[in-house]
Amino acid sequence: MATEMITGRPRAESHTLRAEEERLRAHLEQQLRVRTRFAPLSDVRALLVSSDRGDRPKSLVVSSQASVAERIYLYVHVAAHIALGHNLPLVTIVERAPGVTRFTDASRHREAEELARAIWWGQTDKGGLLGAPSFAQRHPVLRRLLASEAARGAIRSVLIGMRHVYYDLRVERALAGSRLAAWLRDALCLTAVVCVAPQLSD
Amino acid sequence: MILGCERELSVTSIAEEGHAVLAGFVGEPLASLIFRDLAATLPKLTDRNTLKEYLEEGLRVWLPK
C-alpha cells in the first residue's frame, strides 16, 4: 500500500515535532493497541502486522529512515486503516515507498488516505486525538495556504524564519506560555507534516 | 527448518512443506491464514532485510504465546 511522501528530512524537526510524534505513538499504543518499533527497512515505509485475535496487540514496524514528520503522517494513516477495518486478523498492511502502488491496494489506500485527511483536520472523531495540533488546525488561513504546493514551501520558510527571530530575540522565556508561541509551535509542526505528506492538504 | 532443501525442491514444494510443518505446531486453520498473508505480502517486499523484519515480526505476533 503506497504512501505518497516527499523524502528528505524537513528542516523543522523541532522538540515540538518530536513531542507530538511521541504523543501520537503513545496514543496508538494505548487506544488502538498498536506497538511501534523502528527497523532499517529499505523498500517500504512501514508494516502493520496483525495478530489472529483482535484483543492482542498489533505491531507497527516503521522504517528507521523515516523523519519525525513522516512518522506522524504514518501514524495517522495507520489509524485510518484500522478505523476502516483493513487490519483483518493475520493480514499485514504494507506501506510502500513513495510512488509505488499495486492495483489491488489502490482502493483501500485511497480510502485510508481520505480518512487520514479528515482525522488530521479534526473533521471526524475516528482518530481520537490523532489530528493535527488543535490551535493550528482551527486556523483556516493556514489550511488554505498549505493546500498549494508553492505556498507550502513559502509558509514553511516564513515559519522557520519566525522561529529564528523568536530565538534570536531571546524572548522565549517571556513568551513561552503565550498564544503566539503556542501558535508558532503548532503551525510549524502541522506545516512540517503536510510538507512531507501533501495528500493531507485539501 | 525445511527438510529436503538441499535437494533443490521447488518453491511450491517448500511452501507446502512449510505449511505442513507449521500446521503441526499451530493447527491447520491458523497455518492456512498465515500462509495466505505470506502469499499476499511477500511479493511486495523485495529487500532482504525488510523481508527478514516482516517474517520475524510476523512470527512474534502471529504465533500463540
Describe what you observe in this structure.
The complex is a heterodimer of chains A (202) and B (65). Chain A contains eight helices and four strands, in the order αβββαβαααααα. With 202 residues, chain A is of the alpha+beta class. Chain A folds into two domains: 15-131, Zincin-like (2-Layer Sandwich); 136-200. In chain A, helix 2 crosses helix 3 and helix 2 crosses helix 8 (179-196). The model of chain A is unreliable at 8-12 (pLDDT under 50). Chain B is mainly α and 65 residues long. Chain B has one domain. Helices cover 69% and strands 0% of the residues of chain B. Chain B is built from three helices and no strands. In chain B, helix 1 (11-26) runs antiparallel to helix 2 (28-41). The A-B interface holds A 39-44, 47, 49-52, 56-59, 61, 89-92, 94, 96, 102 and B 30, 33-34, 36-37, 40-41, 44-47, 49-50, 53-54, 57-58, 60-62.
Q: How many domain regions of chain B?
A: 1
Count of discrete domains of chain A: 2
Supply the number of helical segments of chain A.
8
Q: How is the main sheet of chain B built?
A: none
In the CATH hierarchy, the architecture of the largest domain in chain A is: 2-Layer Sandwich
Quaternary assembly: heterodimer
Intertermini distance of chain A: 21 Å
For the largest interface, the chains and their residue counts are: A-B, 23 and 20 residues
Shape of chain B: globular
Largest sheet of chain A: 4 strands, mixed
Mean pLDDT over all positions of chain B: 83
Number of helices of chain B: 3
Total beta strand runs of chain B: 0
Helix content of chain B: 55-70%
* CATH top level assignment of the largest domain in chain A: Alpha Beta
Strand content of chain B: under 5%
Q: What general form of chain A does the structure show?
A: globular
The SSE order of chain B reads HHH
Low-confidence stretches of chain A: 8-12
Give the strand tally of chain A: 4
Q: Over all CA atoms, what is the radius of gyration of chain B? A: 12 Å
